UniProtKB/TrEMBL annotation:
Matches recorded under InterPro entries: ADH-like_C, ADH-like_N, ADH_Zn_CS, ER, GroES-like_sf, NAD(P)-bd_dom_sf
Residue ranges occupied by any Enoyl reductase (ER) domain in the UniProt entry: 14-360
Name of the protein: Zinc-binding dehydrogenase
SMART domains referenced in this protein's UniProt entry, alphabetically: PKS_ER
Cofactor requirement: Zn(2+)
Length: 361
């Protein structure tokens, strides 16, 4: 059986996202059909609007989502119809070289649905990050579903599929923030705010927010930062150093992913400190750093997927923190919109409006 659903599609590079009819097949072996309830609009979707890593069009947008399992294919274990789930783009295959060497975070062939979703003329769609969730229904591999407590709102749960997961993990996992550490977070969108929350949860002694937008800095203060640097007014590196006794931070999270912010992160850290690249860079972005500085400053330059965690494990842990009142997912939520408003939302995202909206289906 094939399901006709409304979904947000981009047909060519730079084209305006449009709501179209998409055909979604019933799940095959190891696959799950999910009726999407909420899907966040993430900055990474901007890259997929340009074709994503492989440049294939048309693209079915959306990847951070929550919904209800509508049907499960043969051999599926762990989830069943009626379960409330959070979707994730990184379900390790378990058999590639990285997985065999206990490095599932770097899995080279994460699980994806084998059966294609298509336009009505049969043209195969390229689902963003293997999810394609800006749709009333989507087809994913069973391993991409993390069972969740239905007490959590679908809008809040959806953000755990990417932004909150990546930012929180950037501080806790990749950055290995320890008690008393100083942490600077460059960029205070959803990923950066989640990094702030992660640093605070890990016991950081000092957490500094860096952003050129005063509205974002005001929001960061609600997440418990101890200091802010408005990089539109003062040099970001000098601002961080001034708030860390001239030393720089132990851990700096670049939650933007631009050449400029990465260089700021590199020089805003203390000697032998850690830089974590948490923001997704544009495909053509390049950064130039003197190799002598890389050698002399030491430390760790980390660029983890999803904050260096494992979605199947960490989504559940973050949901538990939320239910216990230790992580307010509602604070990350932007306006709620419908599928027809997605085009305007993408334009707002391009202009830096915040926070990013969540589509309710």
């Amino acid at each position: 059986m094939t399901h006709e659903v409304r979904a947000v599609v981009v047909r060519e590079t730079g084209a305006h996202p449009s709501v179209e009819t998409v055909l979604v097949p019933d799940p095959g072996p190891g696959e799950v059909l999910v009726r999407v309830r909420s899907c966040g609009i993430c900055p990474a979707d901007l890259d997929w609007r340009e074709g994503g890593p492989d440049g294939r069009f048309p693209v079915l947008l959306g990847h951070e989502a929550a919904g209800v399992v509508a049907a499960a294919g043969a051999g599926v274990a762990g989830v069943r119809p009626g379960d409330f789930v959070v979707l994730n783009p990184h379900a390790p295959c378990g058999s590639c070289r990285s997985c065999r060497h206990a490095r599932a975070r770097g899995c080279a062939a994460p699980r994806r649905a084998a059966r294609p979703m298509t336009l009505t003329d049969g043209t195969e769609l390229s689902p963003a990050l293997g999810v394609g969730a800006l749709a009333e229904c989507t087809l994913v591999a069973a391993g991409q579903c993390v069972k969740a407590d239905p007490a959590v709102s679908s809008a809040a749960a959806a953000l755990l599929g990417c932004n909150v997961l990546a930012g929180y993990g950037a501080a806790v996992h990749a950055g290995a923030v320890g008690r008393g550490d100083s942490v600077a977070v460059i960029g205070c969108g959803s990923v950066g705010l989640a990094a702030v929350a992660g640093a605070r949860a890990a016991g950081a002694g000092r957490v500094i927010a860096v952003d050129p937008d005063g509205r974002r800095l005001d929001l960061a203060e609600r997440f418990g930062v101890t200091g802010t640097v408005n990089s539109a007014r003062i040099d970001a590196v000098e601002g961080v150093r001034a708030l860390t006794g001239g030393l720089g931070a132990d851990v700096v999270v670049d939650a933007v992913g631009s050449p400029e912010t990465y260089a700021q992160a590199f020089y805003a850290r203390d000697l032998a400190g850690t830089v974590v690249l948490a923001g997704a860079p544009a495909r053509a972005a390049t950064v130039r750093l003197p190799l002598s500085d890389v050698f002399a400053r030491g430390g760790v330059l980390s660029s983890p997927r999803h904050g260096g965690g494992l979605p199947a494990r960490d989504i559940g842990a973050l949901l538990d923190l939320h239910l216990k009142g230790r992580l307010d997912l509602g604070a990350f939520l932007g306006p709620r919109i419908g599928l027809g408003d997605v085009g305007a939302a993408f334009e707002a995202l391009c202009h830096g409006d915040m926070p990013a909206p969540v589509v309710l289906l």
